[in-house]
Design goal:
The chain is α/β, with parallel strands linked by helices and about 260 residues long. It is built from 7 helices and 15 strands. The chain has one domain (about 20-255): CNF1/YfiH-like putative cysteine hydrolases (4-Layer Sandwich), CATH 3.60.140.10. Helices cover about 25% and strands about 25% of the residues. Strand 9 (about 125-130) and strand 10 (about 135-140) form a beta hairpin. The longest helix is centred in the N-terminal third of the chain and has 15 residues, at about 50-65. It is globular and about 45 Å long. The model has no long low-confidence stretch (mean pLDDT about 95).
């Protein structure tokens, strides 16, 4: 049984063992926030105590072992932020992390800089190029899937850094599963192409949608790992907006050391 005082971290087999790569999707335990944000909430804007969020982020940063962490206000869009030295210097300090302008995807080739995405049902997708030594951390909810944010990130990785799609590794965080992803207004919210991913009436398999989009972007099937853990079903381990409404946000982080 998970000790609620311990920091829980989901790691991916596909990414473990890559020299210099640090990653993890941190669960809801091991922080200081009180209910309903208990306890490792890293979200600033959900009503939690700012002091608690600072301490929680410090614990994530320490667990990652990086000199700096950087995130961004997430707006469920498809804006991509390149985290280079200039962007890092321009980012605002907020507690133990720095904050860029609003974006839902972060990319860097800098060492010792943790890219952090906040989730509570949406997917965090790590993209790693072990050849070019480039990483991306993508916040992809259903709107991100509709907007094709993953395809846009892969395209930018190719154009900006010379990455090859076949070299990229992708890891998809615990997130809303096909068992619980009900979209009552799917006829107006989701494109017709998503209909083939219906798991039952009004329910959709966004894990499969993400896998298809990554393959369409040129990634190899063997280079995609889906956590396969539903945040609603495992709300005792993970924050879930759908399960709880007012709740915390988990940290998904990746870095080169």
């Amino acid at each position: 049984m998970q000790d609620k005082n311990e920091l829980y971290r989901h790691n991916f087999q596909l990414l473990t063992g890559i020299p210099g790569l640090i990653h993890g999707v941190f669960g809801r335990h091991g922080g200081v926030s009180l209910a309903p944000y208990d306890s490792l909430n890293v979200g600033w804007s959900n009503g939690d105590s700012p002091d608690a969020v600072r301490e929680n982020l410090s614990r994530v940063k320490d667990a990652m072992g990086v000199a700096q962490m950087i995130g961004s206000p997430q707006v469920h869009g498809d804006t991509i932020q390149i985290v280079d030295e200039e962007a890092l210097a321009a980012a605002k300090e907020r507690g133990p992390a720095r904050v860029t302008t609003p974006a839902d995807a972060l990319i860097t080739n800098l060492r010792d800089v943790g890219l952090i995405v906040k989730i509570a049902d949406c997917q965090a997708v790590f993209l790693v190029d072990p050849v070019k030594r480039v990483i991306a951390n993508v916040h992809s909810g259903w709107r991100g899937s509709v907007n094709g944010v993953l395809l846009k990130v892969v395209r930018l990785l190719r154009e900006r850094y010379g990455c090859r799609s076949q070299d990229l590794l992708a890891a998809v965080s615990p997130s809303l599963g096909p068992c619980c992803a009900e979209f009552r207004n799917f006829r107006t919210e989701l494109p017709p192409a998503f209909r083939e991913f219906q798991s039952r009436p009004a329910y959709f398999d966004f894990w499969a949608i993400t896998r298809r989009q990554l393959q369409k972007a040129g990634l190899r099937e063997a280079n995609i790992e889906i956590a396969g853990r539903c945040t609603v079903c495992e709300a005792q381990h993970f924050f879930s907006y759908r399960a709880q409404g007012t709740t915390g946000r988990m940290a998904a982080a990746v870095a080169w050391n």
